[in-house]
Amino acid sequence: MSDTMQSMALTVPQSGSIEAYVQSAYSIPMLSAEREHELATRLHQENDLQAAQELIMSHLRFVVHVAKGYAGYGLPQADLIQEGNVGLMKAVKRFNPEVGVRLVSFAVHWIKAEIHEFVLRNWRIVKVATTKAQRKLFFNLRKNKKRLGWFSNDEVSNVAETLGVSEKDVLEMESRMTSQDQTFEISSDDDDSGQGMSFAPAQYLEDKQSDIAEQVEESNWEDHANQRLANALVALDDRSQDIIKTRWLNDDKSTLQELADKYQISAERVRQLEKNALNKLKSGMAA
């Protein structure tokens, strides 16, 4: 991925301003299917980086949504979102608008892949000491500690200087070594211990019933179908439109006899008009 594309995603803050970032991401308007196809075509055919930027920015909200599903691993939300943004940029670069799906359906797999890799690299059960500095800390941290409890700022500085590592590495290793791994699922004994509610990683798995990509696709299909129905209705004469609306679309539906009395024709004639109008609607929506 080019440096230009990497610079397009918003930098996710590491402090309390993460809430402001989330609000900013959700404030960016979503793209219509037509606009999304236009931008993707420009990027795919002309390498238009301005189009890529608009595609990325309009999908940051989906990265936030996906990242929230991995909060149970205890990793910083800002880091999860940032890794998801990397996946989004990779997806935008590879997206082919002629495939016939919305970008979010394609990108969600890239977003999750980057977040999964980040979790595997950083969750304690997988990673405790993998770099040279961390291994040095792992074997020397306790004997350099003067008391129980967390390090003071002075102790952090002293340990970092003594071992020749950064203060950030000291704090990170201290956090890992003082935390405890959990079982993946709660055992029946834990559940009945009476110690209050307990939580395990299994309870934080993403909800497969809440697929943001599927929701966007369904919403897009529904909007498209409604527009085609409206266009097909306009092609009918006024009487046929009224029959279809009052028989099928209105909450308070009319009977055949009520429409027969309204138009001074037989109920059978109303049924014939209704049937003809429905056939025209089907043809119009299928065109």
From TrEMBL:
The keyword Transcription regulation applies. Interacts with the RNA polymerase core enzyme. Belongs to the sigma-70 factor family. RpoH subfamily. InterPro entries: RNA_pol_sigma-70_dom, RNA_pol_sigma70, RNA_pol_sigma70_r2, RNA_pol_sigma70_r4, RNA_pol_sigma_r2, RNA_pol_sigma_r3/r4-like, RNA_pol_sigma_RpoH_proteobac, Sigma-70_Factor. Sigma factors are initiation factors that promote the attachment of RNA polymerase to specific initiation sites and are then released. This sigma factor is involved in regulation of expression of heat shock genes. The keyword Cytoplasm applies. HAMAP family: Sigma70_RpoH. It is found in: Cytoplasm. A motif (Interaction with polymerase core subunit RpoC) lies at residues 79-82. Residues 256-275 bind DNA. It comes from Thalassotalea insulae. This is RNA polymerase sigma factor RpoH. Residues 79-92, 255-281 form the RNA polymerase sigma-70 domain. Keywords: Cytoplasm, DNA-binding, Sigma factor, Stress response, Transcription, Transcription regulation. Its main location: cytoplasm. Residues 55-124 are annotated as: Sigma-70 factor domain-2.
